[in-house]
Structures are given as C-alpha cells and as structure tokens.
Amino acid sequence: MSVAGYEDYYNGDYFMVCNETAASPFGKVFLPTLYSLVFIVGFAGNSLVLCVLMKHWNQANLTDISLFNLALSDLLFVLTLPFYAHYAVAGEWPFGDFMCRITSLFHRTGFFSSIFFMIFMTLDRYVVIMHALTVARYRTLRTGVIVSIVVWLLSFTVSLPSLIFTQVTNSSYGTGCRYMPDNDIWEDYNLFAMNILGLVLPLLIMIACYARIIPRLVNMRSTKRHRVIRLIICIVLAFFLFWTPYNIYLFLFFLNDKGKLGGEVCEVEEHLKLTGTVTETFAYTHCCLNPVIYAFIGEKFIKRVLNLLKSWFPSLRSVLARDLSENSRRKSSVMSQSSEVTSTFIS
After folding, report:
1. Where do the G-protein coupled receptors family 1 profile domain residues begin and end (predicted)?
2. What is the model's pLDDT at position 103?
3. Is 204 a residue whose pLDDT tops 90?
4. Fewer C-beta neighbours within 10 Å, C or N terminus of the chain?
C-alpha cells in the first residue's frame, strides 16, 4: 500500500465493518519477509553503486550523476522498509510521532525522486541519440547538479503532504501511524500522485522517447545496438510489469472507498487486502533492479565494480583479473561514431 495506507491496513481502520480475514495474518508474514529481502538486496546493490561512483567522482559525467541520484533515491526508499516491516509484525507504531512523519516523508520522497530521475535519464538519452551535436555542450556537470537539485526539490514538494498530515494516532486497534488529511482533496491526492506521477507520466515518456530512439539505433552501424535495444525493452517492461498491478490496486481501492465497486462488501475488502499486500511488495522490488538495469549492465561500470571488489577482497584478485582480461579481448579495437552514441546506454 501507499504510505498513507500502511497503518490503516495493519490496524484495520479501513475494514472495520468486516471481521478479520486470512489476509491480515498473511500480511504479517508476507510483508516483513519481502520487505526484509528488498531492504537487504536494495541496500547492498544501491550502496555499491554509490561507492563506485564516489570512488570515480573526478571522472563523473551527466550519466554518472543521474545514476548516483537514482541509487540515492532507492537507498532512501529502502531505508524506511525496516520500520514498516516492524509495523506489520507488531501491528503498532512504537517509534513516535517524529519518526512517523519523517519515515513517511522519506518513503515518498525516495519513491518520487527515483521515478523523476528515471524520467530525466530517459529524456537525456533521447536528446543524446536524436540531437547529439546540439546538446553536447549542455551535458555538463553543472547541468547535472542543477537538474539534481530541481528533481529533489520537486520530489520533496510532491511528498510534503505526507509530512504534514501523517501523525501518530491512538485507537482501539493500538498506536498507529496514520495519514490524516483535512479533507477529501488531500485524500484523493494520493491516488493522483501515485497513478499519474508514479506510473502514467513516466510510462508515457518512456514509450514516446524509446519509440523514436529504437528506429535510430536500428540504422546505426554498431555492434552494441542489439544489446542497447534489449536494454531499452527491459527498462520499459520492468517498470510497467512491477508497478502497474500495484497502481491498478490503488485505483480499485479508491473506487471501493467511494462505494463504486459492486459485490458483497466484506468479500471485496478481503480480496483488496490480499491484492494490496502482494502487489505492493512486488512493486517495491523494482528498486532492487535499478542498479542492475541502469548500472551493472554497463561495461565501464562493471569494470569499476570489479576493481572496487578487488581492493576490498584481495583474495579475489586473480579471478577478477582473469575476467577483466577476457572481457578486454572481446572488445572491438575500433569504435564508430554510432558506438559512441550507444555508449550513453551501456557505459
């Protein structure tokens, strides 16, 4: 569920008219388990991306800055999951009002900043491929810093209602951390933000940009073009497959809350609880894929990761050195102009 819905699900405030169902015990096992796995994998992967990029910060370009901020966004997001995992098990919020608000704010800000940086990376790739000569002088570190500041401020602004309206509450279900807006406008804002800004907008931008990019790549004389095209398809499909089910659930939850869904009330609510639990955790695993999709698939980045691991684990030096030499022999000694353009995706 969205941040605004965690406490209502765990405490049952949205489902008071019905008796407890199997969905709640299932959620108390399923949610903490998946949250813990997402936290471990996401923390390790995104931390490694940050370490590699910081180690080579003097060689950073606009793409590296985008990857750095994307990893930072996902890291901010996964750091909130242990709090919600504990919340799912205990059924109460023991961390106080300040942590209730801050955790909610970090969760939302991490989510939206990740989405917005993916949008920026898509647009950046589009202008590089379609207008390479025109935009080359604008793709500077200064541009990257300015864009990063703007994206973080935008993400914070979009997430601000979570800080303002989320608070600790006491009820017969125990102490909760609830989103308590002043009116229905801010209640409906969550649906708009998650569905429009979190899914529809980025998906439309990805489809529009990559639909123009792929034909251009097909016509390029580059040995990397097929790999790049596969990468593009993976980016769009992964985003769509992981987030669409959860956003459909949010829309159905909104309709049910407004009394627009037919059927027996308790039966619908039971299915919604189970659906929300599964689709939410499935969607959150996307932050674990970002390092793989955007960073680890690049040849230059893989080399940097291997070199960093060699410095951390000396016993692996011989194995990693052999892998690096084999990879170098496979690389072509001549790169065409089109290959340099496609390296925007995979280097």
Report:
1. 45-294
2. 94
3. yes
4. C
Domain count, the chain: 1
pTM of the predicted structure, to 2 decimals: 0.80
The residue count of the chain comes to: 347
Per residue in 306-319, pLDDT (tens digit) is 777 777 767 666 65
CATH number at residue 80: 1.20.1070.10
**Residue 326 covered by a domain:** no
By C-alpha distance, which of 297, 246, 284 is closest to 84? 284
On whether residue 312 sits in a domain, the answer given is no
Q: Give domain status of residue 311, yes or no.
A: no
pLDDT band at 128 (very low <50, low <70, confident <90, very high): confident
- How many Å apart are CA 64 and CA 46, to the nearest integer? 13
pLDDT per position as a tens digit, 32-66: 888 899 999 999 889 988 988 888 888 788 888 98
Alpha-carbon distances of 335 from 223, 310, 343, rounded to whole Å: 9, 28, 10
CA nearest neighbour of 72 among 54, 90, 88: 54
Domain that holds residue 121: 25-299
Paired residues of 17 in beta bridges:
none
The C-alpha angle 250, 252, 254, rounded to 5 degrees, equals 70
Backbone CA torsion sign across 125, 130, 133, 138? negative
223 within domain boundaries: yes
- Give the CA dihedral 111, 112, 116, 118, nearest 10 degrees: 20
